[in-house]
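Write out structure tokens for tRNA-specific 2-thiouridylase MnmA.
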Amino acid sequence: MKVLAAMSGGVDSAVAAARAAEAGHDVVGVHMALSRSRAQTRSGSRGCCTVEDASDARRAAERIGIPYYVWDLSEDFHDLVIADFLSEYAAGRTPNPCVRCNERIKFASLLERARLLGFDAVCTGHYARIGNAGPDGSPSLHRARNLPKDQSYVLAVMGPEATARAVFPLGEDEDKQAVRDEARARGLGVSTKPDSYDICFVADGDTRGFLERNLGAAPGEIVDADGTVLGEHAGTHGFTIGQRKGLGLQRPAPDGAPRYVLDVRPDTRQVVVGPSELLSRAELTARDLVAFEPISPGRRVLAQIRAHGEALPGVVESVPGDGPAGRAESELLRVRLDAPVRGVAPGQTLVLYDGDRVLASATLERRA
């Protein structure tokens, strides 16, 4: 099989490429240059896909003995990931840029280029597993054996078609240290390289500052659930539902309890705050459903709303197309949780599981 190995410059993608080559595939390594500016070169463990990482990926490819190229996807990355990130925050939502990157760059732009060049599959260092579900042998996406490193949540949006052309050689590994030991044994210089973290295009890790620089100031009011003005803010894009720190309030709540962001309203420039008990909700509504298999109302599922959050039991109440024509219910996925969860924010990704198998991905809407 002709395989394009996406090499980020980290240990996981290097070992994945090495395993693909060792398995007898015709492997070509490619590094995605996503940054428009060399200033985004990082040191240590912050970020990914930078100039520094390109050099690390090249050395790994040379060691493995596979051809290596750098593809400039910076325009796609800016237009499909960074611009989306900014517009979502400007609209009062809380996006996950890693989900968008996997969907639109690694398994859309990259996969399409690979297909046009005659590659059969794209190989990455993600921690997830691919299996077959149903009598038709359609591809299914599963959690990795290494649950703390599992990335099925951010991969779920790729859907069954892209999954059918993906290879995840690390999905069966239960220990990250074993992957590092293998890299060392293979002579890959990235064996001790720290994991990347935070948002890769926010080089200094200051997400709020990044939003302020790009979206500008838009002062407004901080109010309680009754509309009483408690303070001011420089822009609603600096807040997300469930946030407690950085509210800048001088007046404590009457009972002394901490306040949390309950809602973000860019149209009126208001940030609504209140007690933690008002954060909880049991019904999740979501749009843009990507399903791996048909889902019917009444099905028991596990619902996850954060990349490293807990999957919570619940039941599907409706799916797009389930309600009468013209009703909102027919356009949204609705899931009723067995117990309320705190801090549900529009823009977050909702992933449904059956055990360790991904059923679907969707984007959370505002409160029902």
